[in-house]
Amino acid sequence: MSKAVVIYLSTSGNTKVMADAIAEGLMSRNVSVTTMNFHEARIEEIKAADAIAIGSSTFHYKMLPPMEKFIESLERANVTGKLGVAFGSYGWSGEAPINIAEKMRKLGMEVIDPVLRIQYQPTEKDLEECKRLGKDLASKIKKTAETHKEGGPKAKGTPLEDVKMGEGGH
Ligand SMILES: Cc1cc2nc3c(=O)[nH]c(=O)nc-3n(C[C@H](O)[C@H](O)[C@H](O)COP(=O)(O)O)c2cc1C
């Protein structure tokens, strides 16, 4: 079974309800999910996951420093090649989810669109969008797993080593 972790920082619960709805979307597509506050995140769980969703609300035009440190520490979990989702509630500027997506990409993760930002408390309609994102992530996890099973692009057509580029200069 595919695995995902949904990790969040939320001071008054707005980003947490987004996290729960993303997890619900993933679970509805048979992905096993652990949802946790970033303080509770364990490196083993992150290493074992096919995908990581990270959310934070915005404070003073950025994410809070402990969340920033946490994401940077993911380098130790070797997250290169894993799928990622960035999300968060905000009030007026909403930089945190964008910064999360940037940091995930720097770590070599493939971040799927959209970077989901919801103003203040999510409405029912907003939560449907969160669930949709969870379902889209689940589909992407399955597609990626199938590509790996087939042996990736090399499995079909000409092996890459046999393609000679520009021999003879023409
Ligand atoms: C002290 C303080 C600073 C904030 N700074 C920003 C900010 O710079 N930009 C922004 O978009 N929202 C800002 N907000 C709004 C929060 O991001 C917003 O209330 C969000 O819904 C909180 O979500 P949470 O419950 O998941 O923490 C700030 C809120 C507080 C209390």
Question: Could you write a compact summary of the structure shown?
Answer:
With 170 residues, the chain is an alpha/beta fold. The protein is built from 5 helices and 6 strands. The radius of gyration is 18 Å and the shape is globular.
Plain-language structure description:
With 170 residues, this protein is α/β, with parallel strands linked by helices. The protein has one domain (3-169): Flavodoxin domain (Rossmann fold), CATH 3.40.50. The chain contains five helices and six strands, in the order βαβαβαβαββα. Strands 1, 2, 3, 4, 5 and 6 form a six-stranded parallel β-sheet that branches. α1 packs across α5. The chain is globular, with a radius of gyration of 18 Å. The termini are far apart. The structure holds flavin mononucleotide.
In terms of topology, how is this protein built?
Elements (H helix, E strand, L loop, with lengths): L2 E7 L4 H15 L3 E6 L5 H6 L2 E6 L8 H9 L9 E8 L4 H12 L3 E2 L4 E4 L4 H26 L21
Parallel strand pairs: 1-2, 1-3, 3-4, 4-5, 4-6
Helix pairs in contact: 1-5
Bound molecules: flavin mononucleotide.
